[in-house]
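User: Could you check the structure of this?
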Amino acid sequence: MKASTFFIGLVTGVVAGSAAALFSTPQSGSELRSNVKTASSDWKEKLSQVKFQISDLKQSIARLSKETKTEIPQTIDELKQSVQLWQNQTEPIQENLQNEISSIQMAMEELEKSIAKYQKNPSPIN
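Assistant: Sure, the predicted structure tokens are below.
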């Protein structure tokens, strides 16, 4: 259901209800005409306020949509650049860590060989 159809139905229902309430109350003709004019001007004012608010809402949505179309791609590009910069900055550190790990592994292998060699030929300590 479209919003415009809903609002037209809402306004029609309110007008019809107001008219039924005005015509069903016991009052003189001049009082009735005065009340109808007052109610009519009140409803016209309220309807113009609703139209203004709907127009303002449409403009806000359009502005937000436009900003979103430009800001999201820009933000994604900035994120990509930040990630690339981080990767470039951490690459030497990663290489150093890999070298350190390799050195530790080699030292452990040498230590294991020394321990195995010592266990085969224990020499007495005096």
